[in-house]
Specification:
Order of helices and strands: HEEHH
Strand content: 5-15%
Largest sheet: 2 strands, antiparallel
Shape: globular
Strand order of the largest sheet: 1-2
Helix content: 40-55%
Number of strands: 2
Distance between the termini: 41 Å
Length: 97
């Protein structure tokens, strides 16, 4: 009986963690690629386990091929930062490490 409670408690923790995953607010379907990393964002007092939807930030880890692509990436980045209410550079640093 105790083992069942431990397993259920673990499932509850996992479900709440997924709900707190950092992802694009425009996402309507489940994230296809999530990672869990230890990190600290601007609004955090100390490092903690972060869930990040890599698919929503992957394009910002690449260098744009031309000026037009760089402009599109910058606009998308600003829109995402506004929607999240924070800069995405610390999130990208967590993904790079």
């Amino acid at each position: 009986m105790r083992l069942v409670l431990v397993v259920l408690a673990g499932l509850t923790f996992s479900a709440s963690t997924v709900a707190d995953c950092i992802q694009s607010p425009e996402r309507t379907q489940a994230c296809p690629h999530q990672i869990y990393r230890l990190g600290q964002l601007e609004n955090m007092a100390k490092p903690a386990m972060l869930c990040i939807c890599v698919a929503d930030f992957k394009e910002f880890l690449t260098v744009p091929s031309d000026e037009d692509e760089a402009h599109k990436q910058k606009l998308k980045r600003l829109k995402l930062e506004y929607a999240l209410g924070q800069k995405i550079e610390p999130i990208l640093q967590v993904l790079k490490d």
